Amino acid sequence: MEEGQTVHLADDDEDDRMLIKDALEEANPNLTVIEAENGKELLENVKESDDLSQSVVLVDMNMPKMNGIEAIKEIRSEPGLEDLPAVMMSTSSNPELKKKALAAGANDFIVKPNTFKALLDIARNILTKFLGMQG
Fold first, then answer.
1. What is the CATH number of the domain that holds 86?
2. What is the C-alpha to C-alpha distance for residues 64 and 20, in angstroms, rounded to an integer?
């Protein structure tokens, strides 16, 4: 497992955030999870990071202040952040939402599962796909 890997997680639902963080940390105990309650906070966290080479952004679609689409567009417009992996999460499996997320610059779109085991599988997939983690 790689050291120094970070997930920037943004979700306004505290329970969801806690579950996602638990799943990510179970998938990789060395992972650092930096939490945000909305897109604005996420953006500040990402901009304050020294090294984003081993980072991935996980952002909820619907949040106050700045939603997931706006946050990803904002990240993509920042110099040096064009290639930062970003995954949109939503409780909805609406194909239109997925299209919008990918058009905004998301690398992937996942529907939040309703079991921890499914969430853990998703966490492992994201870490493997974007951070090259071997689990």
1. 3.40.50.2300
2. 19
